[in-house]
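Supplementary Data S3. Sequence and structure tokens for construct A.
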Amino acid sequence: MPYLKKLVFLTILISFYMSGNTQTLPPNVPSNGLIAWYPFNGNANDESTFNNDGNLFGGVSLTTDRFGNQNSAYDFDGVDDFIEIPAPNELVFGNSDNFSINLWFKPVEFDPNTKEHLFKKYGCPYGAGQDIITLDFYDTIRVKLRQDGISTGNITGSQVSPCYDWQMITMVKDAIADSLHYYLNGQLFNSISIPNSSNSSSVPYYFGMSRWCTNPPNNLVPIFHYEGKIDDTGVWDRKLTSSEIQNLFDISFSNISFFGLDSNNLCLGDILTGYSADTNNVFSKTWVVNTPDTSFTQNNDTFQIQIQSGGYYEFKLYRNSTICPDSVTYSFTLDSFPDISIVPPVSNSCGDSLYVIGADSGFTYLWNTSSTDSFTLVNDTGLYTVQVTSPANC
């Protein structure tokens, strides 16, 4: 018998936070202790409650973020671009203060002969009572903390991960344990002990460069300009936990989620289109499909298949890399549409009934007699038809 057909175009949606010009934090960004948040969604505003907005200098310009969203990160030219946060009192950390800094960046290249600063706190005159916080890279990515004019912590030696073009760097100071911790892409790289020091002063922070304090006359000279992108920078007045830092790293290949694909809403003949959410990865990918159907097309980031029969469907995405192999799988079983038929009346007299058999629970009916039951009374001669609709609107 004929049945109602509803074409469904399904997509697999990425599960990452999609940036927008809003003060709503991404779900993986801890709000507890957050004293500065720079998502760079159309501007350099601090979207924490303290509103320590950044000022743009040079030709720093908006660009795409790690999810491909337009105007959601800043691009620095490595010549004279930088963003200044003028002496925020909330970002002054003394000897007894814990703090954490997390920053995303995508450099144009890693030049072992060129020092480039990502995020820097520095002021003049250089010396006691001042802390200098540095996130930078030279031959390796590193973090540095300097208080009282002496170097109290300097962690170097972490190479950039070859599996990602965007990198996430995290610096955590534990004042109680007198230690400094450095994470790269959500994983702890190293921890060191640091000596005590006195309270610090309020001086500016800089994105994309550093300052050098000449003596005399204590002028701030811009140096170490960074070339590349910076995004989603947060500062907390507490220690972030390891699990919180891992959650901030939101582009892991293995964490791709297939949302929007509901096997309960698929019908025979529907065209299923899926998208790889691994847009950050620099390697090509391969889809491997185990389905009852053969009508399947794919490219590096998408697949498309027409559902032609019930059965087991499995979609597996492989990263084509011997350095960073990984895969992710999604599967479901689609029940076949039941074999439905109509039982003719026992006799050809008025008052008899026509019955639909074979339909499962949850199916609906619409006869041309206006009956919505699984049966209809035969009150006249003529053609009797029924539309049988499954719970998936098939």
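Construct B, processed identically:
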Amino acid sequence: MRTPTNVFCIALAASDSTKIINDILYFVVVLITEIPGADWKRIFISLYPFTHYVFHTTMMAASLLTVAIAIERYVEVCHPYKARSLCTMTLAVSTSICILFFSFLISIPYACKYIVSENEMNGTMIDLDLAVTDLWEKGPFAISFTWVHYVLRSLLPLVLLIVFSARIIYSLRSHRLGHSKQRITICILAVIAVFVMCNFPDTIMSTILNTGYYEASYLVRGFREITDFFLLLQTTTNIIIYCTLNRSFIKTSKELIKKCNCCNRRVSSGNKPTEQMPLRRYTVDSLLS
């Protein structure tokens, strides 16, 4: 069943899956750096700025997509007559693409936060390490960009999600909905609740305390690991919620995968050389007969 809610959920699931893969890759690289006898630190230093950028990109996309889902569900439940013209498939697809594109663009400064620095040891050995760039040193850009980013990623979505979820719950109590709409609405409310609970600690650490990870102390890193665990818990819980409470999401995902497979088969079959029919030789006697 193709609905705007499923479009947003598929985009959010793609963002969450990318974040999970990014976290697994980061964990594996950190784990293998403890293996002696190999230059794994060089791999970690080269990979960390990329994973840092992907982390912030996927988190921004997940936050904005969750807000878009809440707004769509609010219009669907509280204003059903306007939903026919506002909640369309075209608008859902275009909104999802714009959110993903905006998340990639606004997170670009995080890709420029760290630089590889060389430190001499005993005058003979060179030790590689990560250092914060001049752009991200304590200054007006770092403070202002961090606040703008986390207001868009955490503070504003938290306020909007609490307001829209309260309106949806009030409408559910006062109006009777169909079984399918009520099930989808409960699914979205569960996603909103998980988002609020899991993002609140990271919001406090990032905005009020204004702390990063690599350049922070070990105590702050310990708290960072806890907040990152809650964010990872949010992404995995979202996928579980989609698969258990939203049956149409699974059907739509299967249809999308089948269409992708069919398109790949058509492309592969189209690249095959066409067989040429053998030319038949005609003689004068055969043409006259």
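The first strand starts at residue 114 and ends at 121. Residues 40-78 form the longest helix (39 residues).
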